[in-house]
């Protein structure tokens, strides 16, 4: 007789893995303290006999209370889809020192200046109120309607929300820096743990929805770059934003990984200065060198960050090496993909000298290029440095290069060409396969630009450098 298998009585709240007995660490997602006992079969909650808010037809619902309210920071509003929505809970994550607190302090001051009917509350758990005040004076974020409080206890923080601007209906915007520093005495666990973060998030969301108050939570990130804490935190909030930037670069990028009120394919650009973060409506000039003389080994391309086109310059240097294994260094680009392009240049373009030469490839301004549309620009820059022939003036290229040496089609071709025309470029090389699209027919070159289509890397080298 076959024995009945025991039912799984424990389940991981992160990934849903089930087991018969309790374990401290989930073997599936490797998270600690997430395996909990499952509830009894059958629902315990019945229907309520009295409804607080009966259901209404969708035509009778007032949507004016959920309209966008500009924050005063243009790039932040761009990523959020138009501004701050009353009652929304936003999670802002990023590495330490990237500028999260500076950006939110500037936004809090701008909201307090523009909308004086209700105050703005800034709760800090990592710094004292005096430290935040000192930074606000440095970046010009001192406003009359901006309130500061240093709290690490969840009950005290909720009390601050209830007391601040009680006569005006409470704060219109509350910023909590950060969610990992708040803890509740009602539940067990240290601050930043799974249990504490769940309790803090649930209490904050309940307060934000009840008071129709926009709330921004600052979150930490792990070594891998993901948001610290349970994934339930990302599911509960309305918007998840990621603030990125290199430590040695002034450029900061803001992306939305989740947005219930707008698109998630846009990016905000900021310039980190001594006076705070400055919105960059046109950041293209940061990634192009200021040299006026044509130099071999440089090529300009246009990359898409979400829906925004950014002009970037790729530089390459090829030098003879006496070593048996020449050095190859890459900065700002995907190193395995650059190695693949060098191999394609050796075999398909017959540049055999690359095998015995040191090769250095980098981007200007610290920008990171990850999309394959920059392959053609990288290949042309390396070929130009190898042959010591500069590329034409006001010239750019974009296209994906395959292992057979073919140039493949890319997305957003018309948007890239329009940006190139706006910046004054006159010559461009694009993939021949992207000449036609199923819905719009032949692609037309912008006025004043000479656009040439190529089908292979060898054809592009012959057209631009005159090399067969």
From TrEMBL:
One of its GO terms (biological process) is proteolysis. GO terms for cellular component: cytosol. One of its GO terms (molecular function) is ATP-dependent peptidase activity. SUPFAM superfamilies: P-loop containing nucleoside triphosphate hydrolases (SSF52540), Ribosomal protein S5 domain 2-like (SSF54211). ATP binds at residues 94-101. Residues 358-468 are annotated as: Lon-protease-like. DNA-dependent ATPase involved in processing of recombination intermediates, plays a role in repairing DNA breaks. Stimulates the branch migration of RecA-mediated strand transfer reactions, allowing the 3' invading strand to extend heteroduplex DNA faster. Binds ssDNA in the presence of ADP but not other nucleotides, has ATPase activity that is stimulated by ssDNA and various branched DNA structures, but inhibited by SSB. Does not have RecA's homology-searching function. The middle region has homology to RecA with ATPase motifs including the RadA KNRFG motif, while the C-terminus is homologous to Lon protease. Belongs to the RecA family. RadA subfamily. This is DNA repair protein RadA.
